[in-house]
Amino acid sequence: DDVPALVGEWTGGAGADVAFEVSGAAGGVDTAVDVLGVRGRLCLVAIHPRPREVNLHRFFWRELTLVGARLYDRSDFERAVALVADGTIPAGRLISKVVPLTEAPAAFEALEGGGDVMKILVDCTTGTEEASA
Q: Which backbone phi and psi does 37 adopt, to 5 degrees?
């Protein structure tokens, strides 16, 4: 889907007030910046493996703010769990696939490449038989 177009439709063309970049991929940064409206705030949550290019013209033109988020307290986790539990956040729709630990390198490559992958969970309880043998 064209996420910026969908956000524009949902907001009547105003754009989002806040975007959270949680993917760690270049495409995630671009999309997060593109959906923000005037004086929007980008909250960078993901740990990026290397520096990213950012559309500074859009930051200037829309007077955007970039905020890093690295630390959380217990109440943050409790609120997040409650939002997922009550269905406010449709977490299942955000997970593209679950892979065994042995496929983790390929998962990171897929995330870096963008495309149709949003979030890949790595199951550390399966796919480790070869590593422990």
A: -90, -175
